[in-house]
Structures are given as structure tokens and as C-alpha cells.
Amino acid sequence: xxxxxxxxxxxxxxxxxxxxxxxxxxxVPEYIRLIAAERYxxxxxxxxxxxxxxxxxxxxxxxxCEPACRRGRVEEEPVAICRLKRVAADNKGEVKHLMPQGxxxxxxxxxxxxxxxxxSLTVARDLAPLGYEIHLYDEWAKGGGMMRTQxxxxxxxxxxxxxxxxYVLDMGVHTHFNTFVDSMKEILDKDYDAVFVGTGAxxxxxxxxxxxxxxxxxIQIGIxxxxxxAFEHTDKIGKKVIVLGGGNTAMDCCRTSKRLGADDVHVIVxxxxxxxxxxxxxxxxxxxxxxIIKNNMPPKEFVIEDGKLKGVLFGNxxxxxxxxxxxxxxxxxxxDVFIEATDVIIAIxxxxxxxxxERDLGIEFGKWDLPVVDRTSxxxxxxxxxxxxxxxxxxxxxxxxxxxxxQAAISIDLFCKGKNVMDRLPPMTNLVSQKMxxxxxxxxxxxxxxLRYQVPHEDKAISLKDRKIEVELGFDHIAGFKEAQRxxxxxxxxxxxxxxxxxxDACVDVCPTDCISFVVNGEEEDLRTRLNAPAENLSQDLYxxxxxxxxxxxxxxxxxxxxxxxCSERCPTAAWDMxxxxxxxxxxxxxxxxxxxx
Amino acid sequence: xxxxxxxxHHPSLKKNKVGYVKADYEGVISTLCAGCGHDSISGAIVQxxxxxxxxxxxxxxxxGIGCSSKTPTYFLSNSHGFNSVHGRMPSITTGANMANKExxxxxxxxxxxxxxxxxxxxVHAIRRNLNMVYIVMNNxxxxxxxxxxxxTADFGSISKxxxxxxxxxxxxxxxxxxxxxxxxxRSFSGDKSQLVPMIKAAMAxxxxxxxxxxxxxxxxxxxxxxxxxYSHVRAHIEETSIFDxxxxxxxxxxxxxxxxxxxxxxxxxxKIQLSKLAPEWDPTDRFxxxxxxxxxxxxxxxxxxxxxxxxxxxxxxxxxxxxxxxxNKLQQEALCPGxxxxxxxxxxxx
Lengths: 598, 350
Description:
The complex is a heterodimer. By secondary structure, chain A is α/β, with parallel strands linked by helices.
């Protein structure tokens, strides 16, 4: 293998698994250390700079970082990254003075944002400080988009959302709430220099099986139901509720029903449990509230009696997978099952919908009636129109929408300055030794052996009474500290200088996870079998040195490195050094004091 | 500064035949200087014990005084151990061995502990062919007292302070050969591919197995001009052969060319495989081994690998005709058969 090029910004970035997996690439270990140091405000600002909604995401994020966490590969469970983010948000001090302070001198450009959700708000935050005049349009009375309409208040208190939405709106954004944009042409006719579409995936799928028309009055679409509850247009539901679907929306619908007066709530999913799209912790929380989840039962018919919905008839299936993993649901032949219901909520998916974009404007639409959008620039085929969030490539999640927003903002800024939108800057990176003295590091390199801490919950008897009572209580300072200590500090990199190495083997002997080997070089496939411990995780790179005096090379398997620094402590020549790698995706602005700490 | 090792291990560590992973053979974190050769030898001992599927309670580690003699703390935490008086490790081992022949005895000593204060003990253990592995972690200096030349420092070797050694160094492996030790070899802490199989073979050898392991003192004797620095040893190393140890009932995995290879069967059925050996050297011929060593020295080379093995070795228990059972397992009636038996014995002398 060729020596690893650690100058490539992506090499060490990939070692920080959580940050790499995060769509917005939030520097996770950096803020976790600050939480352990009780510097909650600083931890919050690192988050805010990167993901705009730390308080919201600390409660509701899909957490792609956690399955990626290295801790999950050496121990049972990953670090509770998401809930630690909440610790920062809950305990922070005054942060507003750390954010860009308006009013911002105008640069003479106007940008329209359609939709007031996380993607648009991110664009607003990134562009407003540069002097853009931002006009944000939303059909609802307040900003936040799906964070407000689809995430129930018992998971995300309104005050938390309001606070973080307002940090953005307070930067001088011109809001046009209660304004449903029904024509793109009208927007384009106003003299905006650029338009950003962040309208999400607002169309919930219906399920038109027999009985739908007759039972319509008691059959609702999940995301519409949640929005109506959020804006208090709906405040009750029947005693027996069936929710159809196995995603997170289904989980929110069933738990909301419980709080609106339903006694008996079923979630019926046509696929097996392991194929359910809902996050495991959302399923767990629903079941804790005595919601019954049944799998392998596709709905066949809404049963109507005397013109009124009586329940739903379900078939029975089992899942079979062909060699490509493609699933088919085979009827088992067991008799159909009738489940009684006063109300049914359909949460089987949602789609993008752009009936308001006229098709003769030059905005090209492709497969599934999605706009044709460039994956890097988020520009559509009409150069002044940009898309982001769920509106761009279909339903994802909040953190992805934020990531899109940052990139779209860069493009809009470049576009408005008459520059090429593909002319993008590389990430900001910094690699600094953490050595403070002999065997002394700036970070706590002792490995905590604690198992993952559980977030305490509000008493069920209390939380089920009021949909606005938050279920999760968050870690207190002590649990937050202990959980933070579980972080392996994967951003503190083991950097090897081949010219200093005397091949004494001290690092090999001390490494608790047998990551380091000195071997004769070869092809990667062969090398992976010849190391001190087999390097079977192909998604993790091998760090290969230049040839050493004995004609061997140092090979480190990054997979289960604990970043404990023992290799550096036992190295007599400082050929190993622990160096902190900070990686920040470039944004349109980097405000002083935000994100760059220590 | 880390005082404890993390408890996490590589998730796909393989268990050996007795159900242990390599980490089960480790000790506490070393307090020796970073980069000390001794730590590599500890690592090689851990590796060897893991590979031969030794149950840790079957081994006793004994040592004297010195940097080297601290190392038993850093390996085999689950084995028996005795940290004895300076230079007196061989007599403690002799006593332990006489009392219980069922254990494997691993003596760890240094160049001061063996070649100076413990020289008398060392040569007598060889003379008796005590069944033990005797490892000297040889760094040519007194690391614990800031690097004065030891008795094994080579003539002319330059110390860290800049003076060259005016005295002749004692070659412990040469001395062991001279005293007819039944297993003699030399290795280098920085060459685990050779050291690990040599430790395994030494443990399988029934008798006194001596390993002189050059182990650079990274703090006091790794300077330019030192003949025991990492770079000097690497530049002057000359192997007697490629050495491999094949435990009893395991198949040979590598076929070597007949003309330049040799296979030796040990008492317990395990095998030593040697390849690429020098034409005029036979590991079972002591004279050829002595010649080979002198020849290498004359060429300024550091000869490593197995020097000599007596495959017919009879250890001290054999010479003394001791009972098979360890003393602590002998019952009252065997130890004190009673006055009737005494009468019988006395009668036989009349």
C-alpha cells in the first residue's frame, strides 16, 4: 500500500466517525469535551455554528452519529451524543451576544426563502449577516416548519423551538407568515436575486382501500393530524385509535393520540419489526406508553357500519427476501384480523409536492416529479432558484436539511456575487499537538469503562395527561459529565512520524486493542490479514507509514483505536503524537468566537 | 501519564486452546522508560504463552533486582511470582523447582543481576541443569542507577557519558556454552519473530534453557557508539538460522529446502525447525556452536538465534531421582511411613 496522505483533509475526518457520519459534520468530540468541562455555552456555540438548532436536535435528531460511534465497536453502546447536545442546550448561559450582531450593513441583494423550516432558516442564518435582505414565506403562523408541525410538544417543547427559530429571525429576516405561496412565477416576478425552496415534503400519502370514502370523517393523514394538534385545531380523538405505518411519524401519531384521550392505541405495520423505519428509541418510547405495535399485517379494508368507521380488517403476511435482499410479503393464509377503531391515522409516508411551481419557468422536474437539483450546489436548472431540505431530494431529516441549507447558502452567495457556484472552498482544518509535558495531554485520555447512561423520563401518569409535558428530562450535570467521559476523543489523532521511529515495538506492546503492527508492506487485502489483530472492518482505513529502516512499514488499523494515547506515552522518540484535528465545513461566514475554541 | 491500561480489547481477538485471549496473559502497565527493550521482551513472553495455550497458573515467574527484574509485574498477572534478592533468583528457583516439578519456571534477570552479583548462582544453576527458562534482559548498563557500564558491556562500547569501556565484556551465552548448558540462544528485543518461537522452545526444553536477549536501554545506552543500541544491533545482527517452533501434535506449516534446514524433536514431541543455517554449524554440536559464535564475533557481528541444544538433556530431577509428585501433594503416609517401615529399613542395614 502507498503511504497514507494525512494532508488529505478527509483522512483524519473519517477517523472521527461521529463527525463524519453527521450530515452537517458537527465537531462532536470537541463539544463533548466542553460539556465535561461544564462549558455549556461554548459547547452550545460549537453546535449552533454547525447545526443551528442544538436544542431541537438534542431532542429529536435522527442521530446518524450514534450508530457510527467508535465506542459501539469496542463496547455495547455508543456515546449518547444526541442527549449530550441537549445538556449543552439546557445548561447554556446567555448566548445571543456570541452570535452575529445586527443590524448588518446591506449588500443590496434580496433573497426569498419559501418555507420556514430548518433548511430555509439555515440559509437565512448564513446569509443575513452578510447583508442580504431575506424574505421568508411560510403558510403557518410561526417559523420552524416540520419541527413545529410534525414533532409533538412532548418531545420538543415549543419554547425550545421558539428560542432557536428566533435567534435566526432576529437577524433582521423579513417574515411573511400565514402566506401560502401558490405561484413560483409571482415570486420570480418580484425582484429577488435568488430564491431558495425549502418547502419540505408536505404531502402525506393516503391509503385508498375499500371503505376509505365512507369512513373519511374518521380517517386522518398523519402529518396533517400532527400539524392540526400543534396549532390546536385538533384537541381530541376517539377512544380506540389505529395508526397505520411504522415510521417515526407513526410513533408521534400514536403517542399524541394517547394524550388526546385515546385509551386503546394500536400501531399496525405491514412489514416485520426489523424493517420498521422508526428509530429504535422512538419505538421503545411508544411501547413504554402502552401502545401496542403489531407487525406483518397489511390493511385490507376500512370496515364501515351504519355509515360510520368501525375498524380495520388486516391480512397476515410473512416477509421473504431474495438473494438481493429484496423483500416480498407473502400471505400466510391465516384468517384476516379485525381490529376495532373509532379513528384511523395513516402515516405510511410522505411525498414532495410542487403544484405551486409552474412548469414553464425553466425549472426542470425529473423522476417522481422531483426538481432536478445539483447535489453540490443545490442549484436547479433555473440558475437563481435553489432547493434544499426534503424539497430537494425527498424526505430525510432535520440535520440533513441544515446541511443542505449551509451548502445552498454558499451557492446563493457565490451566485449573487456573479461567481461560479462550483467554485467552493475546502473545509477549515487544524491539526495541533495536545502534548503539555511528558505524558501530559490537554484531553483526558483515561478510558472510562462506564456503560451508557439512561436519560430519565417524566412519570408516565403525569406526561400522558398533557401533550405539552416533555417526556425526557435530560441528563443532569453529573450524568452529563459521566456520559461525556465515555467519549473516546476520536478527533485526537495518532499522528506517526516515520523518520523518528526506532522500531522499538513499545507502541505495539502497549496498544490495548492491538491496532498497531510493523510488517512488510503488501496489498491492502493481504495486509489486513497479516496484522496483529485482523482488520476486518473494511469501512475503516489502514494508516500506512513510509518505509522504515528495517524495510517494514507501520500499519495502524483505525477501526478500534481508543485514542488513549498510550502509543505516544510509550514512544521514546515522540514518533507518535496525539494531535487534535478540528474539521469545520466552510460556511458563508464564520463568526468570531463561534466554533473555534481551545 | 496513564497508570492503568484500558480494559477494552480488540473485539475479534481469538481465544487459544485453553480459552484465553492474549490480553489474559498481560500484566499491569509498565513503569519502565518509554521504548525500553524489556517491554518488548515482556510482550514476547505474553505472546509465547498465549500461543502455546499455557494455563497461567502453570507458570512461576521469578526475578532478582534491576529494571529487568521489575518486568514480571508487566506480564502474566495470573501466574505465580517471586521477586527475590539481587542475584539470588537461581537459588530461589532451584528451591521452588525441587518442591514442585509440575510448574514451568521462568527466571528473568538482567546483566547486572546475572553477570555481576549473581554470577555464582547463575553458573551453578547451569551446572545442575535446573529445568527452567533463564532470560537475561541484557542492555549492557545499569539503567536503574543511571547507566554505568555493566559486566556485559562490550570492550570499546561508548557510554552515554562519552567514555569507552576499557574492560572485556562477559559473553553470557558463550559462558553458558562453555558450562555445557543444554539450551543456549541469543535474541534481540526488537525481533519478536525470532524471540517468540525461541521462548516457546525454551519452555518446552527439559533442562536449563538460557536466552541472552539484547535489550537496548533507551535512556542510557542507545547512543552513538554503543554496541547495544537499537541501530547498532540492527546493523550488525547475524542470525544462525530462521527459527520456528512447532508445538506437539501440530503440523509443520512451512516446507524448507532440505539441504539448508534441520528439524529437531524435543522431549515432549514438539519440534524446532531451523532453516537457512550456516553450512559449518550444527545446533546439536557444541563445538560447532562455539566456533560459529567466535567467528561471528571476529567479524563484528552479533549472532542471534539458537546456538546449541542438547536433545538428550536430563534435568536435575532426573539426576537426583526425585519423586514424581510435587512435595505439596505428598500425603502423610508417603512422607512418614511409620515406625514399622523404619524398623524394616534399619533391619536391611544389619
